[in-house]
Amino acid sequence: MEQTADSAIEGAREAAEDAAPADASDPYQRRRQTFPTLNEEQIARIAGYGQTADYGAGEVLFQRGDREADFFLVLEGGIDIIDMDAEGEEKVITTHGVHQFTGELDLFNRSKILVSGQTSGPSRLVRLDRQQFRRMSSTEQDIGELMMRAFILRRTAFLLHDEAAVTVIGEPNGRDTVRIRRFLARNGYPARLLEASSDDAAAYARECSMHVSTLPAVRTSDGRVYHNPSTAELADALGITVPLDPDHCYDLVVIGAGPSGLSAAVYAASEALDTIVIETEAPGGQAGTSSKIENYLGFPTGISGQALAGRAWIQAQKFGATFAIARAAETIKKEGRLIRITTQDGQSVCASAAIVASGATYRKLDLPGYEKFEGQGIHYAATALEAQLCQAQEVVVVGGGNSAGQAAVFLSRHASHVHVLVRSDGLAASMSDYLVSRIEQSSRITLHTETELTALSGRRMLEEVTWRNRTSGEQETKAIGNVFVMIGAVPNTEWLGDCLELDERGFVRTGAAVSPRGDEAGPFDTSEPGIFAVGDVRSGSVKRVASGVGEGSVCISAVHAYLQDSA
User: Fold this and answer.
1) Residue 430, domain extent
2) Are residues 20 and 118 in the same domain?
3) Kind and range of the H or E run holding 460
4) Closest listed residue to residue 362, CA positions, set 260, 436, 423, 287
């Protein structure tokens, strides 16, 4: 996760202050930010929120695997932060000295913490429990900002240096190895890769009685081994997710942590709504897999989808939102005025209101290496940004619907040539006539009927594509680096059952036409009072990150109004 800063000026000043001959992207080379030393005035303010006590040498303050580590500020002595290396031996990552403090991002959630802490000698410490720490960091905003920056950098250092990490043993390009590593990376969990063919992997295999057929495997620092675990199993084993309390009733449950769900969580939690977010895999949704978003407001040089999602995830947790990661919603139903969500692993969540932000999945082509080129040459939207990427180049548009036709016409103004591939024998049955006419009349668009994409190749980026005529079998390979896949989107609404009214394509209908409130209904009201829908899952929504963020934030006012009316 990336560092946040108040302004470009502050960021430049801090970068200059921390400049070092070593890699400036390494938080350990930016110690003034990663391990700041507080002044007397800041210490006095913090001390007022907690308790001050003396501790003996070697006293354990928290241990890896705990879900409730307190915050400690050193007045005298020190605190060793301890990790377990790949061989299971303890090592000290750092020692917090006088006027420094413990903690990293896990202070904002109930995930299992990644490191242990113990006094390095006789010490005098200020101790704040979770509730006291939250109150302090939100009230003393300058201190809270300094600590947030430090926490982000400390987690970044863990990821960069494979500290507090689990070991993934497997073939680097293996499907499940990639799945496991992607899940851990997207959830900011440190992991080191041990290639299955290495000598170290062979030693691990002997020690843990592993066989190649059981790989990939995940080995924790305490020696536990999980053989090709599912995403949910891994999340539970490592404590990435939190246990759900079926007896606790939240004000709001948000289903889905894409841009719209994250936005809803931030605004709801910041406005004192007791909020929980249920997410199938990791914060960010489809946007979280984007290598760079260059047209999002406020980021002129662009930002990766994972970085944007990571910031929003931390922001929501800072305000008190709870996240249940790797929990797929399976059912939703009303129980009187309450709403209950059941997850695929049999747990349940109760809330007074719900926001469905489960998104949509763009249909993908079944081709070898396809996932490798997503965001690296394969696109699902044709905007000005994508047009810039393919200026004066040949491109391919796959699909025969209106979205494909609009993309082809738009791209023809920028690309040197556009190849439209359709599996059918023409466009008339699937595309509006005006688009068909424009495609036929354009000298910069070629329609390839009864044709399908058969191969993609390239090193890091897409460089070459092959297509084949399904009737003649003739193949053609061209040096093309941008493919626009416009074959529709599948809404993630199967889990809704018959709870909400859907449109003919399975997206959630909203607004006055379906809401029992009629003309008084808002744009995010569904057919069931108290349940709202935002983002890609909503029928008629604009499938863009910015619009999803806007819908998520605006919807919270409707949630407040509903909760007030139903009180």
Assistant:
1) 371-485
2) yes
3) none
4) 287
Per-residue pLDDT reduced to its tens digit, 28-82:
999 999 999 999 999 999 999 999 999 999 999 999 999 989 999 999 999 999 9
Q: Are residues 331 and 431 located together in one domain of the fold? A: no
Same domain, 480 and 496: no
> Residue 411 and residue 397: Cα distance in Å, rounded?
9
**pLDDT tens digits along 165-222:** 999 998 886 768 878 998 999 899 999 998 888 877 777 777 766 776 778 999 988 8
Return d(Cα 502, Cα 332) in angstroms, integer: 14
Q: Is the CB of residue 348 less than 8 Å from the CB of residue 341?
A: yes
CA dihedral defined by 445, 446, 450, 456, rounded to 10 degrees? -80
pLDDT, tens digit, 9 for 90 and up, residues 326-380: 999 999 999 999 999 999 999 999 999 999 999 988 889 999 989 888 877 888 8
Considering the domain boundaries, does residue 273 fall inside one? yes
Q: How many residues appear in the chain?
A: 567
Does residue 25 sit in the same domain as residue 137? yes
CATH number of the structural domain spanning residue 209: 3.40.30.10
Same structural domain, 503 and 531: yes
Q: Are 350 and 339 in contact (CB under 8 A)?
A: yes
Provide the strand spans (E) within 174-236.
Answer: 191-195, 217-219, 225-227
Question: Which among 222, 83, 225, 100 has a CA at the least distance from the CA of 161?
Answer: 83
Residue ending a domain, choose from 138, 161, 184: 161
Same structural domain, 405 and 347: no
CA distance 488 to 515: 27
State how far the alpha carbon of 457 is from the alpha carbons of 223, 462, 465, in Å: 40, 6, 6
- What's the burial of 40, exposed, middle or buried (CB within 10 Å: 0-12/13-18/19+)? exposed
For residues 70 and 212, membership in a common domain is answered with no
Domain end among 134, 161, 188: 161
Same domain, 151 and 227: no
Q: Residue 339 belongs to a domain with what CATH number?
A: 3.50.50.60
- Number of other residues whose CB lies within 10 A of the CB of residue 212: 11
Distances, alpha carbon 416 to alpha carbons 193, 381, 548, in Å: 42, 18, 33
Claim: this prediction has a pTM higher than 0.85:
no
Residue 216: is the preceding peptide bond cis (ω within 30°)? yes
Q: Which residue has the tokens 């591939």?
A: 421
